[in-house]
Design a protein that fits this description.
heterodimer; A: mainly alpha; ABC transporter involved in vitamin B12 uptake, BtuC; four-stranded mixed sheet; two-stranded antiparallel ribbon; 27 helices; 71% helix; globular; B: alpha/beta; Rossmann fold; 10 strands
């Protein structure tokens, strides 16, 4: 009984705080239609700023609390709304999701930058540990902290205030009106923009209060665990409220808090469950999220809510695809001649990530089904290949067999089909959340368990025995692809083949059906298409791609840990691919290589420079540059609202004049050739080649563009012009 | 003449709001059947029920005597029901031709009727509906009136027994509407197509339809030939204040 009371008190305390975070999420969603994944990030950052004020600058606690929760957080949220979220109207679900995910990653990066994550950041609870009442029950002392009562009171107060605001005040009614019809609200004299900004400000306060208080409950503020905790619990509670009802959201928050408290509490008492109990903490809300999403009343089949989304993707012809694949292969072969072994390895891992990203091109780009956990699918492929497909005498002569990879693919396809089952009911945001739940479940529950886990019936092992695994190179018939160069070239060839294959698939009847399903499931169904098999097959195909990429990725990294498959890393890959262009193969290339190479290379460079030049670190901080580089991709992701079709489309458009302009084309190739030969013959180093490559890449389209304006080359007619002409006819 | 479509005692309610109340009507093969009524009468809801996108609270849908009440939209399409949408549901990432081709491909894979050459059929339907000039244009770039015609063309690509047209004339100019009406009549007379038409352009409905059913506040108000409907006083009352000649 005493235990029950203790767990009950702890559960209610964290529950109301989750409810608070979730209510803020619901508030901003209902007034702007944007589901803010960064909401948990704002809460996390607020906890760090509160730590900074109270523990480093020694501000009085209450002043810091008010400053963070009621000044900084609302201002920050209004800024986010004004600068980023407002621009997202008319974009698809995936663009909206990726922008807020990018923001979350940026906030995460900021926290890592500002506060060294390897050290502890503890914030004491209000009134300290001594501030408590003591009760006697069943011969035991039970403590009720002032802090716990305070949390409940604050949460209740804010919850009631929000309900009153919504139901009784003009502003509140306007807030609800904003979502239904901003235009109508405008006609009636309301200012939708101001109303939405206000709701974002209030949402920010609620997130910050939740973040600071949960930080106190946890004792230590840690960016990763706090963000994931807030995202999963907040999102689950918000979904229980179906993103509409604040009372139901509060109920959901408390329910999650109690579940977690009771499960991990009782599990920790039982010897057999002790090793699992930490995992229960986070696995419970994740599983609840899955269940909630599945039992939510089903959305009726609808088409894209807008007849014209701003995203447009051009499908290349087969000839163009083969030429592009060939050129890329030649380019990578040439590059591999001048790159050092570690650079080659990095590029190989980037190429493997690109293959995982292809799974997104197929599933999200073509079929419109969102998957936020591509790397988790890759992990399954790699783990199964590792457990069941190794041949040879042992390290370092062991190899991954083709049979192992095949088995990995099959296992991942089965998991893909299982994950597709909720996808039969869910679309857009709901599906995104379900896949996120799957990803978090994989990384915090399945992959964190270091004992032996065998899938029943299939006898497939799914675990990290000992917490790490080393996937050896592939044995491809008679060849062992051991050297980094062999790995890079084989990954590149595979990417090219799979990429061309995907384009062929997109141009096939099957591909057209996928796109039709994306654009209007209702119309596709009423034409006679069975959507169930179309969805399941799309999930299975894309899982197979992720599995192949996953195996190659692990091989290129050598040794991998659970953290390799972190959900945040999946988010980053999704972000990179959407930034590149989710509907195109080149977008996947840009996303994968960008994440694998760009980020790693830039970070390594700056990191090394920071270490080497510690002496003038005070003046020019290389460490700062390193952190900035980490933030860069997130920053690009945030700006997607301005260019939702991704950057590949823009790049291709800007390079088009070169192909039409023979002198510039020859000049460009010649300059590149000279730079390459100089590098190959060691006249200068690799960095000079990168530098020249960058300069040529910037100058030649500019020159070609100028010449075209001057009328010296025939202007390429853009698609839009042709289109308008056709319509006018 | 046999009933192609039988709708019997269909009721639909959304959280207590009754959208359709015990509605029964039929469509004859080889005819154009009009379904009219003021805004909110339940016309589009009825189409959603017939095409299987919406489960009715009660009632039955029979096509050619086959009970489709429990079938999903795909199964109903296989039985020969095809439709257009009031709020356009085109495949906006595809061109006009691709919109038609994908419909033909789906139709061919269903094993209903003889397979046909999809490309030729698309060309034929586009020529029939004056879409040849925009064949390779993205549908997203089309003005609403023509986009509606693309929806009709796409619905025809499945060679349906019955096609449900939801306000095909809205967004079209008077001349376009005129031409569209003639074409529809011609298709029905020549190829034995059956049409169920929801349309706000009452003169068009009166001119085209063989029979008309009138819905009002979710209930069937009247059924009959255009002449009978024109003389029905209850119908005139439903179109509050509308002078008789516009009905």
């Amino acid at each position: 009984m005493a235990n029950f009371i203790v767990f009950l008190i702890a559960g209610i305390t964290s529950g109301v705080l989750f409810a608070l975070a979730a209510s803020g999420l619901v508030l901003t969603y209902t007034t702007s239609g944007i589901f803010n994944f960064a909401h948990g990030g704002v809460a996390m950052l607020a906890a760090f700023v509160f730590y900074q004020m109270t523990q480093v600058w020694m501000w009085p606690t209450w002043i810091a609390f008010v400053a963070v929760c009621f000044v900084l957080a609302p201002l920050f949220q209004v800024g986010i709304y004004r600068l980023i979220m407002r621009r997202l109207s008319g974009t698809s679900d995936i663009t909206k999701i990726v922008v807020t995910i990018s923001l979350m990653l940026a906030l995460f990066g900021l926290a890592q930058w500002g506060w060294d994550q390897s050290s502890l950041h503890s914030i004491p609870i209000f009134w300290g540990a001594e501030g408590e009442w003591t009760f006697h029950l069943g011969g035991r002392d039970i403590y009720l902290q002032y802090f716990q009562v305070f949390s409940v009171v604050v949460a209740l107060f804010l919850g009631i205030a929000l309900s009153v605001l919504f139901k009784r005040t003009r502003v509140g009614i306007a807030m609800r009106a904003v979502v239904d019809s901003p235009d109508l609200l405008k006609l009636n004299g309301g200012v939708p923009d101001k109303v939405a900004a206000l709701s974002w400000a209030i949402g920010g306060s609620m997130a910050a209060v939740a973040g600071v208080l949960i930080g106190q409950v946890q004792g230590n503020v840690d960016a990763t665990s706090l963000t994931i905790l807030l995202i999963t619990c907040g999102v689950t509670a918000a979904m229980i409220g179906r993103l509409r009802s604040i009372p139901m959201t509060v109920f959901g928050g408390v329910l999650i808090g109690l579940e977690m408290s009771f499960f991990s509490g009782y599990a920790s008492l039982h010897p057999a469950w002790t090793s699992w109990s930490p995992s229960f903490g986070i696995a419970i809300p994740v599983m609840s999220l899955f269940v909630v999403l599945l039992v939510l009343p089903q959305d009726r089949l609808r088409g894209a809510s807008l007849s014209r989304l701003r995203e447009r993707f051009v499908v290349p012809t087969m000839k163009t695809s083969w030429v592009a694949a060939g050129s890329m292969l030649v380019f990578v072969i040439a590059l591999s001649q001048i790159m050092g072994s570690s650079d080659t390895q990095t590029l190989a891992s980037g190429m493997a990530l690109s293959i995982i990203a292809l799974s997104l091109t197929m599933l999200t780009g073509f079929a419109g089904e969102i998957n936020l956990a591509p790397i988790s699918f890759g992990a399954i492929g790699a783990i199964v290949a590792y457990h069941h497909g190794l041949i040879g005498p042992g390290y370092p002569d062991q190899r991954t067999s083709m049979w192992g990879i095949f088995l990995g693919i099959v296992a991942t396809m089965i998991v893909g089909a299982v994950v597709a089952v909720p996808a039969l009911r869910l679309r857009g945001l709901h599906l995104a959340l379900a896949t996120m739940a799957f990803g978090i479940f994989m990384s915090v529950f399945i992959l964190s368990f270091t004992g032996v886990v065998t899938v029943p019936l299939l006898h497939i092992q799914l675990s990290f025995v000992g917490g790490a695994m080393t996937v050896p190179p592939v044995k491809f018939f008679l060849w062992s692809l051991v050297s980094p160069k062999a790995q890079l070239l084989s990954s590149t060839v595979l990417f090219c083949l799979l990429g061309v294959g995907l384009i062929a698939l997109r141009r096939s009847s099957y591909g057209r059906r996928l796109v039709a399903m994306k654009d209007s499931p209702a119309a596709t169904a009423t034409l006679g298409q069975n959507l169930m098999w179309l969805k399941i097959s799309a999930f299975m195909f894309s899982s197979a791609l992720a599995a192949v990429g996953g195996v190659l990725y692990c091989i290129s990294l050598g040794s991998v840990q659970t953290s390799t498959f972190d959900i945040l890393f999946s988010f980053a890959l999704v972000m990179g691919t959407v930034v590149g262009g989710i509907g195109s193969v080149s977008g996947a290339l840009l996303g994968g290589v960008g994440l694998g190479v760009g980020l790693t290379a830039i970070q390594h460079t700056f990191f090394n420079l920071a270490n080497a030049h510690n002496d003038f670190g005070q003046l020019v901080s290389w460490a700062t540059a390193y952190h900035l580089a980490a933030l860069l991709p997130a920053t690009i992701g945030i700006t997607l609202g301005g260019n939702p079709s991704g950057s590949v489309a823009n790049i291709v458009e800007s390079y088009k004049p070169i192909i039409k302009d023979l002198p510039v084309l020859i000049g460009t190739l010649f300059a590149l050739g000279v730079a390459y030969v100089l590098t190959l013959s060691h006249v200068w180093g690799n960095w000079w080649f990168v530098f020249c490559f960058g300069i040529i890449g910037i100058i030649s389209p500019a020159v070609a563009g100028k010449r075209m304006e001057g009328g010296q080359a025939s202007p390429p007619q853009s698609n839009n012009v042709q289109l308008e002409m056709a319509v006018q006819q | 003449m046999t009933n192609l479509l039988d709708v019997s005692n269909v009721s639909v309610s959304f959280r207590g709001t009754k959208a359709l109340i015990d509605v029964s009507f039929d469509c004859q093969a080889g005819q154009i059947t009009g379904l009219i009524g003021p805004n909110g009468a339940g016309k589009t809801t009825m189409f959603n029920v017939i095409s299987g996108l919406l489960k009715p609270t009660s009632g039955k849908i029979l096509l050619d005597g086959v009970d489709l009440s429990k079938a999903n939209p795909a199964k109903r399409a296989r039985q020969g029901i095809s439709r257009t949408f009031q709020r356009l549901e085109l495949f906006v990432s595809l061109t006009v031709r691709e919109n038609l081709v994908v419909a033909g491909e789906i139709r061919n894979s269903l094993g209903r009727g003889e397979k046909f050459d999809v490309a030729n059929e698309a060309d034929r339907v586009m020529a029939l509906l004056d879409l040849t000039d925009v064949a390779d244009v993205d549908v997203a770039a089309l003005p609403t009136g023509r986009a509606r015609v693309v929806e009709v063309a796409r619905a025809l690509m499945t060679r349906p027994k019955l096609v449900l047209l939801d306000e095909p004339a809205s967004g079209q100019s008077e001349e376009e509407t005129e031409r569209f009406g003639e074409l529809l009549r011609k298709m029905v007379d020549d190829s034995g197509l059956s049409v169920c038409l929801v349309e706000h352009d009452v003169p068009l409905v009166m001119r085209l339809c063989d029979r008309i059913h009138v819905l009002n506040f979710g209930e069937l108000l009247a059924s009959g030939t255009p002449d009978e409907i024109r003389q029905n006083t209850a119908v005139a009352d439903a179109y509050l204040g509308a002078p008789e000649e516009t009905i």
